[in-house]
Amino acid sequence: MMLxxxxxxLSGLLLSGSACLAEPVVVVNxxxxxxxxADEVKALFLGQANTLPGSGAVQVALPKEGKLREDxxxxxxxxxxxxxxxxxxxxxxxxxxxxxxxxxxxxxxxxWVASTPNGVGILDSxxxxxxxxxxxxx
Length: 138
Known about the structure:
It is a single chain. The chain is α/β, with parallel strands linked by helices. The protein is 43% helix and 19% strand. It is built from five helices and seven strands. The N and C termini lie far apart (49 Å). Residues 1-19 have low confidence and may be disordered.
């Protein structure tokens, strides 16, 4: 039995397309109040703020390393990893901010955000479920 080449091509595009659609998203604990603006969220990840309007102090979390972190830092924060680490090193050294929590896996990060009322983190969009709430970064 010979498979139709059009079906094979379509299947391949659908499978590869689903991997391309996954992207970093900012997630919060569902209990977090308010709808922060993209600039307010960006300020959190740059260490320029540690509160969100209507929510008070928040804790930021990131993966320790990997493509998700790199894509987020470059695409959303607008820095490369070296620049991003330098920003946080200076903030921590001068006592102006606490380092973001870092996790070895997205599953650990998601579990932390889901159980931390003031938790804010990043996940691959394909990992989002009802335990966390996505907030807009655009």
